[in-house]
């Protein structure tokens, strides 16, 4: 994780040790059901739940956009988004109401941000928030589109087959921010004249998104992310970690898989250990740069109870050479 001066910023990520929490949970008889093996046979028709419809209803209920706070902390966690080259292309996967997009766009006035979500309601909220922002040119550098990357994949205009082939076949010595699609006329990638795609992206943010995807679709989802990143590009990851407070609050009847739960509104949530993330990323070819638990204590202002939150923080790079 970025070693910024978090004390000065009143930001902490190691309020407690994850392994101590693990021991406490695993020794608590009332929480043993979270640890038991799970057979998908027991889940009935839960896999038939339409994720996009569930999230549409979720965002419709929270249509004011105030349910999610702007995630300014991400620029401390992922300073690469602030120090990237001019006109870098960022794809935010699972953008929700734009709480991640806005601070990224504000930080650097040349960054181009594409944002997708499976929910049309979420995209409406995101566009409203971006359009209402008073920052210079924010709305002109933001483009949203509907997409369920775990089932249908990403649209070809992000990276055509020729560019994807070029990513695999050529050696690029650049770093995120360089326009690797601009190559000579004999290149197998799309030419500047054809303009059939944007030539891939320099960064992908996957922030509290993969946990909403059924585990059996996660490998395809990560493969899709890998395919549209330029060589040297970064995937920036943050999601729910194993034994997070929200996991421990789920009732036994809400389990629909191993470490997977279904909320009453039909949205699902999976809780990651470090190895589950590591295996997903390495299987498609990502190089691990950072991967750790982020353990934060927060206080519920209404009842004064301390909440122990656990998230997984990770940075993964697409190699600049094929092996």
UniProtKB/TrEMBL annotation:
PANTHER family: METHYLTRANSFERASE-RELATED, TRNA N(3)-METHYLCYTIDINE METHYLTRANSFERASE. Pfam families: Methyltransf_23. It comes from Fraxinus pennsylvanica. Its EC number is 2.1.1.-. It comes from the Eukaryota. Belongs to the methyltransferase superfamily. METL family. Keywords: Methyltransferase, Transferase. One of its GO terms (biological process) is methylation. S-adenosyl-L-methionine-dependent methyltransferase. GO terms for molecular function: RNA methyltransferase activity; S-adenosylmethionine-dependent methyltransferase activity. It is an enzyme of class 2 (transferase). This is tRNA N(3)-methylcytidine methyltransferase.
């Amino acid at each position: 994780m970025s070693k910024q001066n978090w004390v000065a910023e009143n930001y902490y990520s190691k309020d407690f040790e994850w392994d101590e929490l693990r021991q406490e949970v695993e020794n608590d008889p009332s929480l043993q059901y979270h640890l038991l093996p799970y057979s998908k046979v027991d889940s009935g028709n839960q896999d038939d739940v339409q994720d996009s419809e569930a999230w549409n209803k979720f965002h419709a209920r929270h249509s004011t956009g105030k349910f999610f706070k702007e995630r300014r902390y991400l620029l401390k966690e992922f300073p690469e988004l602030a120090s990237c080259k001019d006109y870098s292309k960022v794809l935010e996967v699972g953008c929700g109401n734009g709480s991640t997009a806005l601070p990224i766009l504000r930080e650097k006035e040349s960054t181009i941000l594409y944002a997708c979500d499976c929910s049309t309601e979420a995209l409406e909220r995101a566009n409203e928030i971006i359009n209402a922002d008073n920052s210079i040119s924010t709305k002109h550098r933001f483009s949203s589109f509907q997409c369920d990357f775990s089932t249908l994949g990403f649209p070809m205009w992000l990276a055509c087959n020729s560019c994807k082939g070029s990513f695999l076949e050529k050696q690029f010595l650049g770093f995120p921010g360089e326009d690797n699609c601009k190559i000579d006329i004999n290149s197998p990638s799309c030419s500047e004249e054809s303009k059939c795609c944007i030539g891939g992206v320099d960064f992908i943010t996957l922030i509290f998104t993969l946990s909403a995807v059924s585990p059996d679709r996660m490998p395809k989802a990560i493969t899709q992310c890998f395919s549209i990143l330029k060589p040297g590009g970064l995937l920036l990851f943050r999601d729910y970690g194993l034994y997070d407070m929200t996991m421990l609050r789920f009732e036994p009847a809400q389990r629909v898989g191993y470490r997977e739960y279904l909320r009453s509104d039909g949205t699902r949530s999976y809780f990651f250990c470090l190895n589950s993330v590591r295996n997903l990323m390495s299987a498609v070819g990502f190089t691990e740069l950072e991967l750790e638990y982020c353990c934060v204590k927060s206080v519920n202002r209404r009842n004064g109870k301390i909440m122990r939150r656990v998230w997984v923080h990770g940075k993964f790079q697409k190699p600049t050479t094929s092996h």
